[in-house]
Amino acid sequence: xxRTFLKASLTLLSGILSILVFxxxxxxxxxxxxxxxxxxxxxxxxxxxxxIKGEKPDNKAIEEYLDLYINFRLKVTEAKALGMDTIxxxxxxxxxxxxxxxxxxxxxxxxxxxxxREAYDRKLSDIRASHILIRVERLASAADTxxxxxxxxxxxxxxxxGEDFGKVAMEESEDPSAKDRDADGQKxxxxxxxxxxxxxxxxxxxxxxxxxxxxxxxxxxxxxxDFGYHLIKVTQKNPAMGxxxxxxxxxxxxxxxxxxxxxxxxxxxxxxxKLLKSGSDFGDVAKLYSADKSTSGKxxxxxxxxxxRLLPEFVATIQNLKEKGDYSEPFQTNYGWHIIKLIExxxxxxxxxxxxxxxxxxxxxxxxxxxxxAFLAKTKARYGFTQNPAALAELAKxxxxxxxxxSWKDNQAAGLTKNLFAIxxxxxxxxxxxxxxxxxxxxxxxxxxxAYVQQQYTLFVNDAIMKxxxxxxxxxxxxxxxxxxxxxxxxxxxxxxDKKVWTKAVKDSVGxxxxxxxxxxxxxxxxxxxxxxxxxxxQTIMKSLQKMLKKGTTDDKxxxxxxxxxxxxxxxxxxxxxxxxxxILDGIEWTPGxxxxxxxxxxxxxxxxxxxxxxxxxxxxxxxxxxxxxxxQNFLEKEWIAELRAKYPVTVNREVFQTLLNQ
Length: 663
Description:
CATH architecture of the largest domain: Orthogonal Bundle
Number of domains: 5
Helix content: 40-55%
Distance between the termini: 39 Å
Structural class: alpha+beta
């Protein structure tokens, strides 16, 4: 509720502080509320932000808005006087909003836009690539990293001299899938480094970038990721397939399949294909032949897939399916024989349609680190960043293997107090970083101490730079300062209005009752018909019923007479009706007495007994509680505003205001 209110109130009353800065002479004071002065530019900025673009407001609208603005400032002034902006709950809430609002100011928008566009452009192509991996731990020592580099460069040299990439991958790659291997007693053929097809976001960003920037069939220089060093060879580049839904029939090779098994499976696939060609339903054939029991009973239909979830053989076959409902000839993979049918295909949409989803994925992916690095670099250049590598190396010598058991103490670096780095006017020492190391260490992580210290140092520096930039926002970004002021005053406005008006109106039953008694004539019933509508379900009782009505028999006695032994021959509804509320009553004269018999559907009929026409009267409080409470809230607010105007003097400089009216 508060968030909704804040948005609404900020829309109405946003821009409390002007984004523009004027000298006192250029920006005269327009009004003063209590001790707070509001300049002309301040008010103009608020008014323009809430006016409809392209429409020139008339003087009446400006006058009315001035009155609303004064009321707003009076409430905020009262909240501050009550100290509501000093309590912890308020400060915590504002801090939470500030953290969210600061994010757009703590990023490199130019790089962000570039990364989003780059991701979309890459989504327009599907790449097939092979790789060779030499593993290097993220926290590997410099010696281990160099050894891995030398090894991958040797493999690169072998390939550039003419050795087959796939052969080298099978022999040397540390990606297990590259080699032939046994799994659960079944021999699995190695991929020779073939990763199949992928598109944007399917691979870690450094790998993806190297692949998309590589030339077809050329081998890249080593690419470093968190897994190690890669050599990449792009073997195909196709227009994007987008998302696709298929139905399939799969005939799977059994474990340790023999040649006879292979021939038998191939024959079955051909038999299934012949049935399809003869006009058999794909779903029926899938139910008869497909080994995938999770889909065979559902027409063979698979979930939606992207290109990275499909074997290369599937991708090649899909390219020959032009229309929905087209199906393929049988084709073979390492898993067996397949027949696929095109259900539907969704191409990559336009950039504008894809932008929001891509933006979300960029923020949650490793691409975000590129944007962060760009912002950090600009922040370092803006405020000045210096560091002392020798001081870091000195501190690293005081760190032991105990840090990987989360038992290292920063007192082991006691006496180390040299400056480590500085950002702007803020200095950070060896002791600061030692304390951070002790606080962030985690049990179970293993690696090279220097590599670990360097990693944590980078994180520590980045965090310090982000906090420094964050702390400068109000001083250097007038629009951010204005935004925070809006939320500051909006929260105060909500909390105090809730206390003085909204919650009070709901809980103050005595006050609400008093307000009702004083204003109940505003909530009147229109003339109503006090009548009984008697519905007869058994026409054999009609004469007897009419005799009872002539005698003035009550509703209860009529019901007791005819509704015996759970048999309902008659029903009666007695209440006060408004015009238009009941079609039967709208068709008779509104005069006391008994109507003629009125035929109804389904062999039913009705008789109306008009008791009286009720004069207009106030509605009971319970019937109008919602509307009454809303009006009571408005009443309380008007009283409150009157009290505030009496408590805090309001002065409007009419000469300055007249210049607004004359514009």
